[in-house]
Automatic annotation (TrEMBL):
Keyword NAD: no
GO biological process, one term: asparaginyl-tRNA aminoacylation
EC number(s) on file: 6.1.1.22
Protein name as annotated: Asparagine--tRNA ligase
Catalysed conversion reaction: tRNA(Asn) + L-asparagine + ATP = L-asparaginyl-tRNA(Asn) + AMP + diphosphate + H(+)
Protein's organism: Paraprevotella xylaniphila YIT 11841
PROSITE patterns referenced in this protein's UniProt entry, alphabetically: AA_TRNA_LIGASE_II (PS50862)
Annotated localization: Cytoplasm
Matches recorded under PANTHER family: ASPARAGINE--TRNA LIGASE, MITOCHONDRIAL-RELATED, ASPARTYL/LYSYL-TRNA SYNTHETASE
Assigned keywords, A-Z: Aminoacyl-tRNA synthetase, ATP-binding, Cytoplasm, Ligase, Nucleotide-binding, Protein biosynthesis
GO terms, molecular function: asparagine-tRNA ligase activity; ATP binding; nucleic acid binding
Main location: cytoplasm
Length: 464
């Protein structure tokens, strides 16, 4: 008899049929005459209840049915009266595939998130993390569907890159050599010509520059892959290894770019509301009681669009009225997440797209506004999180871009291939980067980015 997934068994109505399920024991309770086992196989947040008559099964076997043990159960599908589900299984045969001792780290319910993180390999088996990672999967599907439906091509940019213009200080170097074995030149600088690629290489901090090459050839592309930043601060929103989604579109200006960002996020959230109902209901109950309300609000309401300068005025006004912030706020300052969250959560009470930032706090490739001071940047700011997207219209004019590169002293010889986009048939284009985990944070209501990726990479933490 073939195994059926629990998600499918729970939908069946052919009472009396024999079925087989396999999964892990969540709980076992019972009396002298009957045992109730809640079994979960990861296919859904919901358990199937197994009813085992005590006189049919050995005491020795029942003792092995502990929380976390793995079972194969064959029995009759029966209508349920009290399990919270429509069906349950009256066991005819129970096989213990894997026993689980009392030292099982997920034995106790209600452990702290910190504890869970120290057992990232086993927390996957809990209801909360099961829900989070099923949602994560569904969101990844939504991302691909959205772009596919809108005529974007999934474009793979390299993970090992040689340009370090953007990632100053945040790059993980890639080498096959023990650093001490590499030759040094007269000035004591390491000579990488001896190394595998014959030059300094690093893990990518963004696929954007290569993405621009894709967009100016294929029209509209998106990347969706692992991204690496040696973030030396410990925050609930930064990982050293995260997944970034970066659409890039030829002929789009900053307004098209904002429309795309808003439409895309709403599509993904709507997708979750439609496809992850059970998991979201669970998280709404256990993690954050306002989760569903917030998700529905986001899909139903327009985002605020506001120039940076206006945002600063609002924040300065708040400070004048006694609102305290940890970091100073003034025109020219990069916003800290406390400022972003003030605008979103307290002032506008909805997502905000902030535009036209001072050029000094944004990257070299962003298109200059006529004022000569601000660039066509856009950050999408979300409740609980702050920045969820950073994007811009790109400077397509070769001379203007060169001037900026020289101004910032960016090493030119690494950039020749990028500049070719502006030398040969340059065109206006725009794009943005969305941190996938920040989207998952919002959609799941989880508080810490370490809890929405199976195996988080953060400073001093690469255990699992
Ligand atoms: P932040 O201000 O939060 O450090 P950033 O401005 O450095 O972010 P960008 O370079 O604009 O980030 O990258 C685009 C998006 O990638 C960000 O809006 C964010 O969603 C995500 N992101 C950036 N750094 C990280 C990180 N270390 N971990 C997870 N997501 C990140
Ligand atoms: Mg950063
Ligand atoms: Mg930022
Ligand atoms: Mg940014």
């Amino acid at each position: 008899i073939r195994r059926i997934k629990i998600i499918d068994v729970l939908k069946r109505e052919d009472y009396g049929s024999e079925v087989n399920v396999k999964g892990w024991v969540r709980t076992r309770r019972g009396s002298k005459s009957v045992h109730f086992i809640a079994l979960n196989d990861g296919s859904t947040i919901n358990n199937v209840q197994i009813v085992a008559d005590a006189d049919k099964f050995d005491d020795e076997l029942i003792k092995l049915i502990t929380t976390g043990a793995c079972l194969s159960v064959t029995g009759e599908l029966v209508q349920s009266v009290g399990s919270g589900q429509a069906v349950e299984i009256r066991a005819r045969e129970i096989e213990v595939l894997g026993t689980c001792g009392s030292d099982y780290p997920m034995q106790k319910k209600g452990q702290s998130m910190e504890y869970m993180r120290t057992h990232a390999h086993m927390r996957l088996r809990t209801n909360t993390f099961g829900a989070v990672f099923r949602i994560r999967h569904n969101m990844a599907m939504a991302v691909h569907r959205y772009f596919h439906e809108h005529g974007f091509f999934y474009f793979h940019t390299p993970i090992i890159t040689a340009s370090d213009c953007e990632g100053a200080g945040q790059m993980f170097q890639v080498t096959t050599k023990n650093l001490y074995d590499l030759k040094k030149d007269d000035e004591g600088k390491i000579d990488y010509s001896d190394d595998f690629f014959g030059k300094t290489t690093s893990l990518t901090v963004s696929g954007q520059l290569e993405g621009e090459l894709g967009a100016t050839a294929l029209g509209a592309i998106y990347t969706f892959g692992p991204t690496f930043r040696a973030e030396n601060s410990n925050t609930p929103r930064h990982l050293a290894e995260f997944w970034m989604i970066e659409p890039e579109v030829a002929f789009n200006d900053i307004h098209d770019n904002m429309d795309l960002a808003e439409d895309f996020i709403k599509y993904c959230v709507r997708w979750a509301l439609e496809h992850c109902q059970d998991d979201l209901a669970f998280l709404n109950k256990m993690i954050d009681k306002t989760l569903l309300e917030r998700l529905n609000f986001v899909v139903e309401n327009d985002f605020v669009r506001l120039p940076y300068t206006k945002g600063i005025e609002i924040l300065e006004e708040a400070v004048k009225n006694g609102r305290k912030f940890e970091f100073p706020i003034y025109w020219g300052a990069d916003l800290a997440s406390e400022h972003e969250r003030y605008l979103v959560e307290e002032y506008f009470k909805r997502p905000v797209i902030l535009t036209d930032y001072p050029k000094e706090i944004k990257a070299f490739y962003m298109k200059m506004n006529d004022d000569g001071k601000t660039v066509r940047a856009m950050d999408v700011l979300f409740p609980q999180i702050g920045e969820i997207i950073g994007g811009s219209e790109r400077e397509e004019n070769y001379d203007k871009l060169m001037a900026r590169i020289e101004e910032l002293n960016i090493p030119m010889k690494d950039m020749w291939w990028y500049l070719d986009t502006r030398r040969f048939g340059t065109c206006p284009h725009s794009g943005f980067g969305l941190g996938f985990e920040r989207l998952i944070l919002f959609v799941t209501g989880m508080q810490n980015i370490r809890d929405v990726i199976p195996f988080p990479r953060t400073p001093k933490n690469a255990e699992f």
